[in-house]
Amino acid sequence: MRIIDLITDTERPAFSFEVLPPLKGTGIGSLRRTIDSLREFGPKYINITTHRSEYVYKDLGEGIMQRLRIRRRPGTVAVAAAIQREYGIPVVPHILCSGFNREETEYVLLDLQFLGIENILLLRGDKANEDKVFMPAAPDGYSHTTELQWQVNEFNEGRFVDGSPIKEPGAPFCYGVACYPEKHEEALNAETDLMYFKRKVELGASYGVTQLFYDNAAYFHFVDRARKAGIEVPIVPGIKPLSKLSQLQTVPKTFHCNLPEPLAAEAMKCKTDEEAKQLGIEWTTHQCKELIAAGVPSIHFYTVSAVDSIREIARRIY
Length: 318
What we know:
Blueprint: H1 3-8, E1 14-19, H2 29-38, E2 45-48, E3 54-61, E4 64-70, H3 76-87, E5 91-96, H4 102-114, E6 119-123, H5 145-156, E7 174-179, H6 190-202, E8 207-210, H7 216-228, E9 235-236, E10 238-239, H8 247-255, H9 261-267, H10 273-293, E11 298-302, H11 307-317
Parallel strand pairs: 1-2, 1-11, 2-5, 5-6, 6-7, 7-8, 8-9, 10-11
Antiparallel strand pairs: 3-4
Helix pairs in contact: 10-11
């Protein structure tokens, strides 16, 4: 079933969450524990992140270093298939520009289609650690989500990336894209950022899911501006509770989001991880209740380091 139908055909805002494929060689046990912990709340779908390859250097001795390209979290397609088979919950694998060329993307689309997976989330992704600015993976790679959308749209219409016809086209993919209540870090200004989101919707995105935020006013203002700009697709709030002391500094810096003054004031009082975790639960519970009262179509949770907190928050609001 298409995600757009799952988040609009429900009496209460849909519950969904994002998981990471396990680190290479660690097995799928921790991922199962995450899903088992949260499935009682009836998730409408589960997102699975994708991670680009990165370069590491191996010391061969005598001053010689070998540059190696590795993927620390492979297996997005396999994980998606395993979740769908084992739990019967719709899955949404991420597909990135970052680290992938057109041929690799095409094979991912084919594999997902063979598996009967019809929902994907299209993202540019982060730049490589060694790059100062975002760079495509290859000369035929993509720099923007809109370029990736073009390939998926062509695939949906029965054409491979080289223009040749697909003899037996499958069901078209339904896809969402990212949006940013507090502006993407590289956007020149908020209006330019909104323009890019509108372009992604015009190209076929069925919905948007936001970068995490802690100030509902920023989300409400963003949605209001989007509607005035003619963007009518659902805009799903992405939520991540603070869960440990270090995140009070790292989360705003990493995700380029602000802590509203009341949250910041309470955060400065926290002395332990447990205090920060409880603050995150209380703040996010209030945040979600306010979003639900405002009629959001869905709430999407980012689970990294926050599964227990999300479970408690979901218990209070679903």
